[in-house]
Amino acid sequence: MMAIDKRENLKAKSFRELKLLFKEKKEPTYRAGQLFVWMWKKGVSDISSYTNFSKKLREYLNTHFYVGSLELCDYLVSRDGSVKYIFKRETGEKIESVFIPFEDRRTVCVSTQVGCSLKCSFCATGKMGFRGDLFGWEIVDQVLQIAKHQNVRVTNVVFMGMGEPFLNWENVKRAIFILNSNFGINIGSRRITISTAGIIPGIYSLADFPLQVRLAISLNSALQEKRERIMPVAKKYPLGELKKAIEFYYEKTHRLVTLEYVLIGGFNTGREDFLALKDFCKRLKVKLNLIPLNPTGNTSFSTPSEEEIYRFYNLCLSLPLTVTIRESRGKDVKGACGQLAGALL
Ligand code: SAH
Fold first, then answer.
1. Which residue has the CA at smallest separation from atom 18 of ligand 1?
2. What whole-number distance in Å separates Cα of residue 184 and Cα of residue 187?
3. pLDDT digits (tens, 9 = 90+) for 185-242
């Protein structure tokens, strides 16, 4: 009969939980830091090679625990230098992440869920439906594996891959602590960005979160009825409430929120769309990031022409805020915004 491995994954434990574990074993609590360094900084999974632990301690750990990892299944290198990664979980499901080098930044875009429950009609991940939440350690492991594979230090992390971070908030919080920890990946909190489709309780919760991570909100239309048509979640969290949440967030944190606005050809780029956006932004402390639609195979949405993009951009330049156009990377490997699921459907 096959023995069932009941060992626990040490990577699934927070720093505090590890300290408790060592305390119970009558070991000094600084061992938690040493263990974190092995697992998260050096990325070493073989407990037997943790040479600053006594042989006895290593044996104890090996008997009761293991150090898990996502399995790197495949990667696709884009012509623009970004790389889409496909990982397999212990449960067998696959997820995707993207490495995006740009000037002196090396950003990893992580997934937080397998698929997504929000069904935004212009996004490929929405088509997959929801298949499960990632654990905090699996979110961090995407960054660790990519840093090892690329042999670089990752400087920025964006929670803009598959899934809605605020619908897996407990695990996302655990991930942020490990990403930020000096003993972990050591990424400054201001270089970590959470992107939400507008889950309002999540925005209020982030306002109280101790680490100063950045927030981006996928607005995509400032007309309630139009927004509902492409983002069903807008019915539950309407624009008026969203605006209040953004105001509260700024009062509490004094950090600018980024509004992401996917430009859909002939759909949300007209004058009335701009006027609604202008009204929505009134009194808000925000930046605006315009994202020309990337193709997902859904033919009811088209990529806007250059002219359409710049017409809307020029209108936005009259607003008292910073406007940028996001040059989505990795389109040729289906690694751009809204395209994660290509290999998984
Ligand atoms: N659920 C979160 C995290 C995913 S982020 C959120 O909605 O913010 C994904 C970003 O890509 C969002 O800003 C989304 O609006 C954008 N996006 C989705 N589909 C896209 C597409 N086909 N082309 C360009 N951007 C897209």
1. 338
2. 9
3. 999 999 999 999 999 999 999 999 999 999 999 999 999 999 999 999 999 999 999 9
Alpha-carbon gap, residue 195 to 179, rounded angstroms: 16
Task: Identify which of 160, 157, 139, 141 has the alpha carbon closest to the alpha carbon of residue 149.
Answer: 141
Q: Is 73 among the residues known to form the active site?
A: no
- Classified as helix, coil or strand, 232 is coil
pLDDT tens digits for range 148-189: 999 999 999 999 999 999 999 999 999 999 999 999 999 999
Question: With pLDDT > 70 as the criterion, what percentage of the chain qualifies?
Answer: 98
Q: Which residue among 133, 164, 193, 195 has the greatest number of ligand 1 atoms within 8 angstroms of its CB, and so is best to mutate?
A: 195
Q: Ligand 1: residues within 6 Å at CB?
A: 122-123, 160, 164, 195-197, 218, 220, 260, 262, 291, 293-294, 296, 337-338
Q: Which of 255, 339, 271 is nearest to 311 (CA)?
A: 271
Dihedral over alpha carbons 144, 173, 157, 290 (to 10 degrees): 150
Phi and psi angles of residue 67, each rounded to the nearest 5 degrees, phi first: -115, 110
**Catalytic site includes residue 316:** no
Report d(CA 217, CA 215) in Å as an integer: 7
Exposure pattern of 283-304 as b/e (b: 16+ CB <10 Å)?
eeebebbbbbbbbbeeeebeeb
Identify the sign of the CA torsion 68, 70, 72, 73: positive
Residues 6+ away with beta carbon under 8 Å from 120? 126, 197, 218, 220, 230, 231, 232, 233
Interstrand relation of 94-102 and 105-109 (parallel, antiparallel or unpaired): antiparallel
